Amino acid sequence: MTTNNLATDKLSDRIQSYSQRQFTGRLDIQGATTWSLYFCLGRLVWATGGVHPHRRWNRLLTQYCPQIPPNGVRLRERELSRYWEYEVLTVLVRRQKIAGEQAVAAIKSAVAEILLDIIQHQEKRPLTFTVDREDVLDASLTLINPAQALQESQQVWEIWCKAGLGNLSPNFAPVLKQPEELQKLASPRVYQTLVKVIDGKHSLRDLSIFIKQDLLLLVRSLLPYIRKKIIGLVEITDLPKQAVSPITATTSTSPQQTSREEASIPPTAPPGPPVSSAKPLSSPPGPPVSSRRPLVAYVDDSVLDCQIMEDILNKANYGFLSIKDSMQALPLLLQHKPDAIFLDLVMPVANGYEICAQIRRISSFKNTPIIILTGNDGIVDRVRAKMLGATDFLAKPVVSQKVLSALHKHLNSSSLSESAPQLLNYQAS
Q1: Residue 358, domain CATH
Q2: CB-based contacts of 53: which residues, under 8 Å, 6+ apart?
């Protein structure tokens, strides 16, 4: 184990150095707290630590593994290794309780969150780096380009600062200081929502997942009340250890052993998505053209448009998956893995931009055609959709010729969205 105490040594310098040297092991970064980055041959495998590891774990499960209840895993004290969350994800994937893409999305989100916290911290205080080459982590789930991950987190930090949020940690919890003033300034709906969720016990990151809103948009919406001192921000502690998990796992303190495979997982299958959220694949009249029909998903809260789309696709011998609840879109898409996705732009809670960005973060959907449909066919919407990884853009109403032409074009293309831009974590604008 080696230590470097040079205050001038930046995180970016370390990341670049270990990537070039194909470093394998653990890098501990000490500041006001400690974070750990795990490398395998110069690539990032996992990241942990910080002030709220258990809160982060709950958020990851809620956002990326909704079929796994956050309080379903119980780990005994002696089984809590430094990277117990990663071991649990590995078990869940190997036992087919979650898809590999779900685990990868959770890992990337954890890495992005921790890198952002480190970047914010090093703006104020120097960092100390400690290397442990013996602590090697199984890299079977994913390998992340560390330079790219750091660049994305730095871009998020720049956006955070430009919004005037440089001194606000996303780990702070909002607390209502002047409810009477809030009631005067906010609409009744906004007031009722804020009174319910702002209790000083949930961090900004927690609230972002709870109310299903992008973190930056959430903080921006609260900023006027924060500046008027109607809402305050306080530091909060992490959740207790026993509130952490989704299986009963028996893990070894030695990373070389494979006792993760001996994890005890309840025999009952995890709850699936609501039946009403997705229709069964429809059988077309007559025999299918090939042994496997392409599956097309349509995410739209409009019942009428879903019925029109289903009729168009069934007649054209495509399989059809209807998703009317935007918050169920990601888990259902991961479950069914459609060949193409039509996505309505205007929906409650999560809009088409946010869902498109979430889909493109998942490696298995990198080349899946995502076709945006909207009644507002403006150049700004088209450019924004393209920047977030959309393959094409169709104006409503849903018309058979346009839908089938788009499918023929993109499902038969030799290169599907190979140049889709990399998306910023926690940014869906």
Answers
A1: 3.40.50.2300
A2: 85, 238
Give all strands of the β-sheet with 340-344 in edge-to-edge order.
319-323, 295-299, 340-344, 370-374, 392-395
Q: Is residue 184 part of a domain?
A: yes
In this predicted structure, what is the pLDDT of residue 258?
34
pLDDT band of residue 216 (cuts 50, 70, 90) is: confident
Could you tell me the pLDDT band of residue 265, with boundaries at 50, 70 and 90? very low
Closest-CA residue to 366 (of 396, 389, 399): 389
Whether residues 73 and 121 share a domain: the answer is: yes
Number of domains in the chain: 3
Cα(5)–Cα(266) distance, rounded to whole angstroms? 46
Cα 243 to Cα 77, 88, 251, 360, distances in angstroms:
13, 14, 18, 31
- Domain range for 289 is 275-411
Higher pLDDT among residues 308 and 113, named by residue: 113
Task: Assign 75 a pLDDT band (cuts: 50, 70, 90).
Answer: low
Helix/strand/coil (H/E/C) assignment for every residue in 147-168 = HHHHHHHHHHHHHHHHCCCCCC
Q: What is the pTM (predicted TM-score) of this model?
A: 0.58
Q: Is residue 429 part of a domain?
A: no
**Per the domain annotation, does 338 fall within a domain?**
yes
Q: Which of the residue ranges 129-133, 320-324, 350-354 would you say has the lowest mean pLDDT?
A: 350-354
Same domain, yes or no, for 24 and 137?
yes
Going by the DSSP 8-state scheme, the letter that residue 138 receives in this structure is: -
> Is 253 within the bounds of a domain?
yes
364 burial (CB, 10 Å; 0-12 / 13-18 / 19+) is middle
CB distance 318 to 293 below 8 Å: yes
Specify the pLDDT at position 233: 94
